[in-house]
Amino acid sequence: MARCARPPAVLALTGPLGAGKTTLAQAFLRALGVEGPIPSPTFLLAHRYDQGPYRMVHMDFYRLEEGAPGDEAWILEALEEADYAVVEWADRAPDLLPPRALWLELRPLPGRPDGREVRVRHPHEEARRWWECALREGWP
Q: Is it true that the peptide bond before 8 is cis, omega within 30 degrees of 0?
């Protein structure tokens, strides 16, 4: 996924608790060069990573409705400034994401603890190209 992403790229992740959103977000950011811990941003809404040539942001909209007024402004600014963004619980505020976002819905497979069903939405041409490249590269 990361090898095929071209900035500015936004990966929007949805699915129930335990679906693997954070694990996928961490793997994506690690593949882009983030070193050190990549904690879940559930309680802070976002972590920024400026490593190497890229500006990256990892967001989690799970608690967005508990945020302070004006959260939308800094979220939009962070997404605009980022070369790469990954957003967990993106379905909680889909209007904050750009149309070019690639949407992945993750669902655990019953009886298969490590298995996941992935549903993809790529409403924009850039997202479609990103997904097609990822499939050619062997993902998932």
A: yes
Residue range of the domain that includes 92: 9-136
106-113 — which CB contacts under 8 Å span 24+ positions? 106/13, 106/14, 106/15, 106/19, 106/20, 106/21, 106/24, 107/15, 107/16, 107/19, 108/16, 108/18, 108/19, 108/20
Q: How far apart are CA 87 and CA 59, in angstroms?
A: 5
Q: How far apart are CA 114 and CA 116, in angstroms?
A: 7
pLDDT digits (tens, 9 = 90+) for 8-64: 999 999 999 999 999 999 999 999 999 999 998 888 889 999 987 899 999 999 988
pLDDT digits (tens, 9 = 90+) for 88-115: 999 999 999 999 999 999 999 988 888 9
Residue 1 belongs to a domain: no
Residue 69 has pLDDT above 70, yes or no: no
The total number of structural domains that make up the chain: 1
